[in-house]
Amino acid sequence: ENPVTRIALMLGLACVASPLWAATLEQALTLDRQNNQASAAVQDEIDRLGAENAYILGGTGVVSSAVEAELDGMLDGFVNRLAGQTRYMTSKVVADTVIKLTGGSNWRGPVLVTTGENFADALAGAPLGAGLDWPVLLANPITGDVYMPKGMSRAVILGGTGAVPAITEVALKRPPLSNSVLDSRDLLLDK
Description:
Elements: E1 6-10, H1 14-24, E2 27-30, H2 40-49, E3 53-57, H3 65-74, E4 79-82, H4 87-102, E5 109-115, H5 120-132, E6 136-139, E7 152-157, H6 166-172, E8 181-183, H7 184-189
Parallel strand pairs: 1-2, 1-3, 3-4, 5-6, 5-7, 7-8
Helix pairs in contact: 1-4, 1-5
């Protein structure tokens, strides 16, 4: 059996990370939010998996610098933090990493768009994103802003207009995606 070489360590943004670990990683580990430390159990799991590298998802307010330093000491390879100043920027960084690792500058593909206000829709769509290697993008429900990566060929909106505002759908329907924006009900019918 081949050892796991890469892991993702996360708190809070597991929903946007699913495509990342599906596309390029073999395992995801979570931290105890109260202690925000890499426990002996994490070290044991790293050892069991034979992991060499890790991605930390979120800023130091989510996973502390102390945990990053602990991980760096536990692993033989790299520890990369994927973070932005907000959850929306972090979802952009994670999406860009998924795109880089699954196709780079030649990437052209669909994305899932969901609200960044709460994570019910994103968590429900995370397995879909992971299974299809589609990045999960968080839309700001107040401004309607959403990151649209170069090469995006299609967008599937998870949730209704109470979650992702109509202004986001309007922005997504501008060329080149004018006929390629679906809501999750359409996805079920799309073969």
